[in-house]
């Protein structure tokens, strides 16, 4: 995908399974452009794409009747009641008029705005507006929902609620969700799969549990004390001598071995032998941030 | 007596979807309501009400005077086409059209871009062409009420009073002329208003630009021809008067200022204004709205 001489997306080979998929990357990584192509609103300059088995460019109108979309922009018609807004978009997405009113109401109840549904959008908080955007995206019973930064502008409590809602929509109603976010931590919490982009290229894709989680590495934090000035160096030396892969970062030692139990035993023995002061010992965990850091290296 | 809580809850939809026609219908109806201020605060209803009063009041007064004074008021009886646009007798009617084209019609396009709704619409079965067509249908329909409505009301009033056209054929002929003449005016004003409105996201700017195009060019064209004595063909630069002149020609009459211009030229110029307006709209919307 190119904008003039600027290549927005390059060499992407992505397969997105059912469930909640996180589209992650920094601002400008190409997340919104990818959503735009998936909706058939932009044409890719090379390659091919299928969404729900349809070509977005050729079958755009048919495809978009099956897809709900929640935009990043938070500007909505100020004087329109939430129920009218959701009902209108349910109709535009193909619901018969007789059905749209009831579905709009049901969708607003589902996102927790049942009591507020007749309020004008202009009087609603950012959190409520985000919920309204989610309601309009699901009111027409889509098979796939694309959400662009759905937690943008929300406080931690509202963010938790929104993430729970997204999880619920996917789990209870079997609606596949693709959400874009630059907040890696929230993607880790809610997504089953991820597609990670960096400057328009694919960094990683796949099941989240396979890409992040516990590793073989053990992290050891030691305390530097005056009476044992060489203790940390000594622990490091002993572990290296025992054949472990050891990395040192000031008072932190990362130790990787084939057998985690044997590694823990060796750490315990080395610390005891050097009379080092141990602050913390934990199993290393690979996060999405680590994934991006490794790629950038 | 037992109470029952009825909660259907969110559920899957197994019925048939209405597709692109349903989406266009819904958008056109929503736009019509929005422009007329239906379901919105009082201030959004002011301009549509003012336009309706200016457009329909003269017809109702004429109708009333004729009903009250009968044969004695026959001298007041205007031609049908005089109720379509800026005629000499009922020149003020053009203010209804002008107000509609400048203050009401721009709302149809500008509001969606200002509120970020355009990209949301394009994420539905609507495409840019179907979106613009639905908007045009809405603007044209409501403008037709203002432009064609008063003349049609006059025809209906005359007919009820027994003063209408002679015979069924004559009646149909007048009806068709009013409809066709009115549609020419509607297409030109819609084209100019929507074309100019597509260039800005601010309703105030759109209104100023539309009034400058319609009224400003009209004044310039008339000064060039009538005051500076330049070629009569320059009257074609007048987007306000040209479609009304075209409608007048359908009734076999000619405006005083444009009497030397051929009907073919007038029709071609009206077509040119329609093309210019909708051409601008099409070019502009080809580039707008992707998320």
Show the helix and strand layout.
The complex is a heterodimer of chains A (297) and B (291).
Chain A: E1 2-3, E2 6-7, E3 20-24, H1 31-38, H2 60-64, E4 67-70, H3 82-92, H4 97-110, H5 126-138, E5 144-148, H6 156-173, E6 176-181, H7 184-190, E7 193-198, E8 201-207, H8 208-211, E9 213-223, H9 231-241, E10 245-249, E11 252-256, H10 260-274, E12 277-286, H11 288-296
Parallel strand pairs in A: 3-6, 3-7, 4-5, 5-6
Antiparallel strand pairs in A: 1-2, 7-8, 9-11, 9-12, 10-11
Chain B: H1 19-36, H2 46-69, H3 93-104, H4 106-114, H5 117-121, H6 128-147, H7 149-161, H8 167-197, H9 203-227, H10 242-250, H11 263-286
Plain-language structure description:
- The complex is a heterodimer of chains A (297) and B (291).
- Chain A is an alpha/beta fold and 297 residues long.
- Chain A folds into two domains: 2-209, Rossmann fold (3-Layer(aba) Sandwich), CATH 3.40.50; 213-296, 2-Layer Sandwich (Alpha-Beta Plaits), CATH 3.30.70.980.
- Helix content of chain A is 39%, strand content 23%.
- Chain A has helices spanning 31-38, 60-64, 82-92, 97-110, 126-138, 156-173, 184-190, 208-211, 231-241, 260-274, 288-296, and strands at 2-3, 6-7, 20-24, 67-70, 144-148, 176-181, 193-198, 201-207, 213-223, 245-249, 252-256, 277-286.
- The longest helix of chain A is centred in the middle third of the chain and has 18 residues, at 156-173.
- The mean pLDDT of chain A is 89.
- In chain B, helix 3 (93-104) packs parallel to helix 8 (167-197) and helix 10 packs across helix 11.
- Chain B is mainly α and 291 residues long.
- Chain B has helices spanning 19-36, 46-69, 93-104, 106-114, 117-121, 128-147, 149-161, 167-197, 203-227, 242-250, 263-286.
- Chain B is globular and about 70 Å long.
- The A-B interface holds A 32, 35-36, 39, 41-42, 60-62, 64-65, 67, 69, 71, 73, 75-79, 84, 88-89, 91-97, 99, 102-103, 106-107, 109-110, 136, 138, 140-141, 146, 148, 173 and B 7-13, 15-20, 22-23, 26-27, 30, 39-41, 44, 111, 114-117, 119-127, 130, 289-291.
């Amino acid at each position: 995908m190119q904008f003039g001489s600027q290549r927005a997306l390059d060499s992407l080979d992505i397969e997105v399974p059912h469930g909640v998929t996180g589209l992650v990357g920094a601002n400008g990584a190409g997340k919104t452009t990818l959503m735009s192509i998936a909706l058939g609103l932009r044409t890719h300059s090379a390659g091919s794409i299928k969404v729900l088995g349809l070509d977005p460019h050729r079958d755009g109108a048919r495809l978009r009747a099956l897809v709900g979309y929640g935009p990043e922009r938070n500007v909505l018609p100020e004087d329109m009641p939430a129920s009218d807004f959701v009902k209108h978009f349910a109709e535009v997405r193909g619901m018969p008029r007789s059905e749209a009113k009831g579905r709009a109401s049901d969708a607003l109840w589902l996102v927790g705005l049942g009591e507020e549904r007749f309020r004008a959008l202009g009087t609603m908080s950012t959190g409520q507006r985000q919920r309204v955007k989610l309601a309009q995206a699901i009111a027409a019973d889509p098979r796939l929902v694309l959400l662009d930064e759905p937690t943008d502008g929300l406080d931690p409590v509202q963010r938790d609620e929104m993430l729970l809602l997204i999880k619920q929509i996917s789990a209870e109603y079997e609606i596949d969700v693709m959400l874009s976010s630059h907040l890696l931590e929230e993607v880790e919490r809610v997504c089953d799969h991820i597609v990670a982009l960096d400057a328009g290229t694919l960094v990683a894709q796949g099941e989240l549990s396979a890409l992040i989680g516990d590793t073989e590495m053990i992290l050891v934090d030691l305390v530097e004390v005056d009476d044992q000035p060489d203790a940390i160096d000594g622990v490091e030396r002993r572990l290296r001598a025992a054949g472990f892969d050891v990395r040192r970062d000031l008072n932190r030692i990362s130790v990787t071995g084939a057998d985690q139990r044997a590694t823990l035993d060796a750490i315990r023995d080395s610390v005891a032998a050097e009379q080092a002061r141990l602050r913390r010992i934990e199993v290393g965990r690979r996060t999405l941030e680590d994934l991006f850091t490794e790629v950038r290296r | 007596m037992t109470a029952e809580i009825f909660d259907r809850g969110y559920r899957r939809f197994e019925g048939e979807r209405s597709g692109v026609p349903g989406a266009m219908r819904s958008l056109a109806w929503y736009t019509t309501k929005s422009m007329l201020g239906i379901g919105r605060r009082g201030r959004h209803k002011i301009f549509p009400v003012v336009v309706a009063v200016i457009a329909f009041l003269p017809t109702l007064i004429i109708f009333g005077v004729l009903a009250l004074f009968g044969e004695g008021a026959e001298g007041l009886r205007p031609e049908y086409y005089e109720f379509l646009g800026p005629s000499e007798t009922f020149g003020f009617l053009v203010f209804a059209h002008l107000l509609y084209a400048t203050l009401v019609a721009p709302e149809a396009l500008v509001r969606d871009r200002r509120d970020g709704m355009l990209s949301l619409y394009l994420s539905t079965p609507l495409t840019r062409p179907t979106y613009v067509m639905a908007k045009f249908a809405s603007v044209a329909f409501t403008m037709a009420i203002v432009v064609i409505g008063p003349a049609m009301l006059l025809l209906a009033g005359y007919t009820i009073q027994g003063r209408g056209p002679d015979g069924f054929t004559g009646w149909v002929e007048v009806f068709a002329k009013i409809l066709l003449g009115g549609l020419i005016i509607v297409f030109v004003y819609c084209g100019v208003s929507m074309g100019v409105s597509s260039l800005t996201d601010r309703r105030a700017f759109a209104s100023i630009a539309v009034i400058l195009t319609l009224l400003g060019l009209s004044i310039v064209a008339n000064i060039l021809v009538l005051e500076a004595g330049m070629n009569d063909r320059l009257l074609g630069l007048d987007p306000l008067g040209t479609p009304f002149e075209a409608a007048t020609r359908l009734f076999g009459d000619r405006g005083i200022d444009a009497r030397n211009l051929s009907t073919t030229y007038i029709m071609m110029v009206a077509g040119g204004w329609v093309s210019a307006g909708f051409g601008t709209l099409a070019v502009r919307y080809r580039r707008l709205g992707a998320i």
